[in-house]
Amino acid sequence: MDRKLLEKYAELAVRVGVNIQKGQRLLLRTSVDAVEFSRLIAEKAYEAGAKEVYVRYSDEYITFLKLKNAPEEIIEEVHSWEVEAAKFFCDEKGAFLSVISSDPDLFKEIPPEIIGKFSKANQMAMKEVSKEIMSGKVSWSVVAVPNEKWAKKVFPESTNPVEDLWNAILKTIRVNENDDPVELWNKHIENLNKRTEFLNKRQYEYLRYKGPGTDLMVGMPENHIWVAGTQKNVDGTVFLPNIPTEEVFSAPHKDKINGYVRNSKPLVYGGNIIDGFTMEFKDGKIVKVTAEKGEDVLKQAISLDEGASYLGEVALVPVDSPIYQLNTIFYNTLFDENAASHFAFGKAYPICIKDGTKMSEEELKEHGLNTSITHVDFMIGNEELDVYGIKDGKEELIMKNGKWAI
């Protein structure tokens, strides 16, 4: 891949993603498949004024071997020094940047209950750190780079799948030879903010989703806030958690969701592919799940704790977004969630309600927001989905056939 394009990508991750500030520390958590790109990120971070770039490499295959061979007590063990390292960067108000590069099929032979125990142990250990991150104490962002197995999954007929996946990723993140991606993203974010301004003024009491296999009423809490791609940390620094992003999102009222919804794209969870699934809700709780593929894994995922069986996020994404228009399934939530409207089961973002970042967990619950150790996005949008906003008994069309109607 052209180094100049990679440099633009790294610059985007540093200056728009985490928006590194002079004198700030950067915790760079990255895959061993992304060494070259991670070094570029470190270069750009130091150029932007970072005082330290601390790199934590991870190897998915080593994790696979652990889950396959280690005794249960080791699978459920999280070293205290790992938690302390993350807490240190939170306390220092450092920035957290993750570079992911996954194999969608790697963990398919690992029993769902093993993946569930491993996930729960890690999420419980990092609960307080995750709370601080989701509450806006620090800036954070996630980007991705290809690897051979992921690329072959996305482009199985290609003679050069890695290059094809690189090209697809660069299109989704608006990186090309001629334009400044930072400028392009600033314009894109401005357009997303116009949507959130409209929705925040409306303060709909309910959203109604209607489409193939979907008929769902979603209650919204009082004083909810719609957020575009960017967020702002407690120091006022604007950052972009996901690159790419096409969504505007908020938090539903966890107890006011009734009906059923069907996914529109595969969900990759714990290295397993889940597809063809329907969820049925009653008073907010997922009471029934069926899936053509990965049903046991999905049932395990929504059973991690009480909050895992309730929704924590509603997100609207138009089907005329660049990612949807590629007509490509990435088998990676970072991209697939930004190709379509989606929900997430599990924890709600405190930023999605007025003064939420100042609330305790109990106060968030009192205001209708879900709490959990997990947060998993799944896609439900397509060209046949309509979304309505309801207030004072009046219904307004927000999305028609998957496109904005506002």
UniProtKB/TrEMBL annotation:
Entry superkingdom: Bacteria
**Family matches, as Pfam families:** Peptidase_M29
Cofactor list? Co(2+); Mg(2+); Zn(2+)
Q: Does the keyword Protease apply?
A: yes
| Any one of the GO BP annotations | proteolysis
- InterPro entries (alphabetical): M29_Exopeptidase, M29_N-terminal, Peptidase_M29
Supply the alphabetized keyword list. Aminopeptidase, Hydrolase, Metal-binding, Metalloprotease, Protease
One molecular function GO term is: metallopeptidase activity
| Protein family membership | Belongs to the peptidase M29 family.
Question: What protein am I looking at?
Answer: Leucyl aminopeptidase (Aminopeptidase T)
